[in-house]
Design brief:
The protein is mainly alpha-helical. Helix content is 81%, strand content 0%. The chain has helices at residues 4-20, 22-33, 37-40, 42-61, 67-87, 91-118, 125-154, 156-177, 185-188, 190-196, 201-222, 224-232, 239-263, 265-286, 290-306, 308-318, 323-350, 357-382, 401-409.
Length: 410
């Protein structure tokens, strides 16, 4: 394993911690700034929206530059945002810090995925992307509960100081461990070439699968604390530990999904999305049983995140020689899915359908994602695309320019 992947994973850990730890610290932040919890919640929503903007606009702006320096600059932006959050004297300064950090989020993962894939052989690209995203899963398993405990014990600002320190370590790692991989211009033809990747129907289908498949999981997860306490009967104090089980599932699913996607991306996504629909339906039906709910938590994280390396790799594959902007757009799509799932879950709760209704909504959204994936896989097969990674089944090394053009039209 190239050691540079560790630096990328550390950056992913810090970014994941920034995104999710605020959820456990909202009461303290709201009290400190004398705002309602609903207003404090915009620190989460504002971050998610800024991720989408950064994933598209910031990635587009830097495609002509060498990727390693860009990653370093993005990490400096991330450090600055968390530093502003740590010292924020008021709510709107805190919001500004969150937005600054979020702008780096989408571009870092989008460009980082391309860099990670470039470090390894064609048959290991999805696995390399999975290693980078391991930082994000580790943030959920370890970072969020311990970051929340640190913030509760020493003040919420201490958590953001700690994240700032993690960002500094990641920056040093990127500068010293990540190899130079050139710029997108070398193969893509600049921004115009990157935009040409969006002529591919398969790129758009893959992005739609990302929105629906990930959105379904996140719709169920957003309101999971209410489900666990109001339906399953767990006490509020046990919720953080149950979320660790969810994080363990994320870690296992991400690793296994990356390895499976290196063999066959489309088959991996079809299996993972099908299993995720089954898990969500089973979870909704058995949410009143504590033992089955524990199992559902692990499986929800596992199959939900098993799709992530494959979804990212599929977009990059069909973007062919101009993957950077498409990769960033797909990171934005994950956050669009987050917003979609959370909104749908909130609608069902507001309609009085109970605290299992977000899980049912998540199952429905994921089922739509599965249907799109079935269509995309069938279209790729009709155009003789075959599996979309460079495993032994694909013979990717021998794909010529005519076949690449055909893949784009698929």
């Amino acid at each position: 394993m190239p050691i540079g992947l560790i630096a990328l994973a550390l950056g992913g850990f810090g970014i994941g911690l920034t995104e999710f730890v605020i959820m456990g610290l909202l009461p303290e932040v709201a009290a400190d700034f004398r705002v309602s919890e609903a207003t404090a919640g915009w620190l989460i929503s504002g971050y998610a929206l800024a991720v989408v903007v950064g994933a598209l606009l910031l990635t587009a702006a830097v495609t002509r530059f060498e990727r390693k320096p860009v990653l370093a600059v993005l990490m400096v932006l991330f450090i600055a945002g968390n530093l502003v959050s740590a010292v924020a004297p008021d709510y709107w300064t805190m919001m500004a810090g969150r937005i600054i950090a979020a702008l780096a989020h989408g571009a870092f993962f989008g460009i980082g995925a391309v860099v990670a894939a470039s470090m390894v052989a064609p048959t290991k690209k999805a696995g390399a992307i999975a290693i980078m995203f391991t930082g994000l899963t580790a943030a959920n398993v370890l970072g969020v509960p311990f970051g929340t405990m640190l913030g509760q014990a020493a003040g919420w600002r201490s958590t953001f100081w700690a994240i700032t320190g993690i960002g500094v370590l990641a920056l040093v790692g990127i500068l010293t461990l990540v190899p130079n991989t050139g710029s997108g211009d070398a193969t893509s033809g600049g921004l115009r070439g990157e935009l040409r990747a969006f002529r591919s129907g398969q790129v758009w289908l893959s992005i739609l699968v990302t929105i629906l498949g990930y959105g379904g999981m996140f719709g169920a997860f957003t309101y999971i604390a209410f489900t666990l306490t109001e339906v399953t009967g767990f006490t509020a104090s046990t919720v953080p530990w149950l979320l660790i089980l969810f994080g363990v599932g994320l870690f296992i699913g991400n690793t296994a999904g990356g390895k499976a996607a290196d063999r066959n991306v489309d088959r991996t996504l079809l299996v993972a999305l099908s299993a995720l629909v089954v898990v969500l339906v089973a979870f909704a039906l058995t949410a009143g049983n504590q033992q089955l709910t524990i199992a559902s938590m692990v499986l929800l994280g596992g199959f939900g995140f098993a799709t992530v390396p494959g979804l990212q790799m599929r977009v990059m594959k069909y973007a062919t020689t101009a993957p950077t902007l498409a990769s960033g757009a797909n990171i934005g799509a994950f956050n669009v899915g987050n917003a979609l799932g959370a909104w749908m879950g909130g609608v069902t709760i507001s309609a009085g359908l109970g605290y299992t209704s977000p899980i049912w909504a998540g199952a429905g959204i994921t089922l739509l994602g599965l249907a799109v994936m079935v269509f995309a896989a069938a279209a790729a097969k009709r155009h003789d695309a075959g599996p979309v990674t460079g495993g032994p089944e694909t013979g990717e090394a021998g794909v010529d320019s005519e076949r690449e053009a055909e893949l784009q039209r698929a």
